[in-house]
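User: Working on a comparison across species. This one is Uridylate kinase from Paludisphaera borealis. Can you predict its structure so I can line it up against the others?
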Amino acid sequence: MDSTDSTSTPAFRRVLLKLSGESFCRPGEGGISVDEVSRIARQVSRVAARGVQLAIVVGGGNILRGAQLSRGSDVIKEATAHYMGMTATVINGLALQDALESVGCETRLMTTIRMDEIAEPFIRRRALSHLERGRIVVLATGTGSPFVTTDTAAALRGKELGVEVLLKATRVDGVYSADPEKNPHAMLYQQLTYDQVLRDELKVMDMTAIGMCFESALPILVFNFKREGNIERAVAGEPIGTWVAAKSRPRPTPGSA
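Assistant: Here's the predicted structure for Uridylate kinase from Paludisphaera borealis:
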């Protein structure tokens, strides 16, 4: 089955999807693959067509990672490298915006660093208005401050925009006890609590982002978006990936919205 039943009721009304920079390129490559961006856009458009309000935070690691650029070098200062990484997310945001509009979606690209010729400034009330009008909001430049990851930006925006879940798109099926690409015996977790993630230092998101979700009681679903239709399945509440939440926040079921 390539996608979920389009007639089923989504489990969530408003979600935030976190896409890493690697989402925009083929495995092991860099830059932007039109095929990969188009594939994401098709899945997202089907989610939006079911009435789900969707904000998307994009990373920029496929183009430039600020932390890596400045490491071991005195030429480019670390803060400057992080700002360079933020501008890389805008390139991905522009690509995703055009791909979404090519399949009939109405979008807005918003940034925390002013770029008035190509994007709107991020203003919480304006972003909420766009979501309520059915527009997909693409969020670039992270928090606008250096030394902060786009994972943390996703947790922050998720709280600000009142989303019901943070969808963390990855290239593996969820959270494992070890790196599944290196250890074939790694165990896939179906559900985790924030406490378990923090205690065992599991690779879900960076610890600042996890702590923010913990304090905000914002659940996280880590899933493999490379499988066709998985973004739709995640929004529908199907049992894919790893559900991370407080013990009192169970995984939703299909049609529970």
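For your comparison, note: The beta strands are 14-19, 53-58, 107-111, 120-121, 136-140, 165-170, 191-192, 220-224, 242-244.

User: Helpful, thanks.
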